Amino acid sequence: MPPAKKEPKEKSTHKLALKGSSKTVTEFFEYCINTILFQRGVYPPEDFTAVKKYGLNMLVSQDDQVKAYIKKIMSQLNKWMLKSKISKLIIVITSKETGEPVERWQFDVQIFGKESKKKGSSKTVDENADSTTEQANEKTDQDVQQEIQSIFRQITASVTFLPMLDGNCTFNVLVYADQDSEVPLEWGDSDAKDIQDAEKVQLRSFSTNNHKVDTLIGGMSVEKRRLPKQKARFGLRALSILTSSASFLVKR
Question: At 201, which CATH number?
Fold first, then answer.
């Protein structure tokens, strides 16, 4: 029997780098959800406890149901990230009384090299040039951590310019995935939960050697009107866990 073919060293190294980068982005989203829930007062302060992460004191929920919900999201998100299937993650804060979205935190995920893989290797010179540029701009873990620190400082400071949320609120998490993504039974298609005439604030971004994440906040406008429900476009699917968040996530 012929010996099994060994995977090229470069390919193996890339897989390890992608795995590490995917974990970094997934962890970032997990702490973002917790931080936003605390800073925006979706849950009372006593539901949170302080932990050390990114060289900062982070607050994470201790509510068992919230923790289980976030854990379920992160588990599936990491699988999609490893397969480069994700383009957006959106945290939607919704009024419990009206069911209308009042705030929308959008995180756009760019995967380096994804488009070039789809287009093939017809432009060898350009690809080599891009590869050289990427290698020259490789980031250390400290570089990435400093960028993430800046984002969390901005999220914390957002309470100074975002309006207070009226009444009881809940939240939901949407994930924009490629059409060919494998979707678990507990996940289903969702509308985009857009907010018409929302006031938007662009926060800082961070990047690893494999991913870039941009952050955008959209708040309810004075008119408080919502766009008609829209499905995700451009070959993407907006997905969320089908279990009603309001049934077990709202607790004030």
Answer: 3.30.900.10
